[in-house]
Design goal:
Number of strands: 6
Largest sheet: 4 strands, parallel
Strand order of the largest sheet: 4-2-1-5
CATH superfamily: Ribosomal protein L13
Order of helices and strands: EHEEHHHEEEH
Radius of gyration: 16 Å
Distance between the termini: 15 Å
CATH architecture: Alpha-Beta Complex
Number of domains: 1
Structural class: alpha/beta
Length: 154
Amino acid sequence: MLEMAEFNIKEYEIFDAENKILGRLSSVVAKRLLLGKKIAIINADKAVISGNRNFIVEKYKTRLNLMEKENPEHSPYWPRRPDMLVKRIIRGMLPYNKPHGKTAYRNLRVFMGKPPAFASAKISAMESKDPNKLYVSHMTIGELSELLGYDYNR
């Protein structure tokens, strides 16, 4: 786990993912990372994915089970933990196989909940639709992670 002593909050632009649509938040964060900014996301487990719950769960369960026949160790890895899942989704929006994409990815920090060090930090505002006013159903990343097999109590 990243120690807060190593983490200088003043260098980072902080986004609160609570009740934000994950795709919109991720695209904004990916663009800013590519511009060379350092980004921290808090409350990652409360970010929202819009769409049919059953379809979302099936899509991510399929991704978890992808295996390369010749060498299963070379298969893509999709985490179950909410903060790592958000980080992996943002990685998909970056040119990760290029040096500037890897550098941008290293400048990203994602946290479940709100760490005490962020109590007095300034949180960047981002426009987002209220998930309760969407015309489609939705679920949080925390709910998705539990359905994929993540256990918060462990």
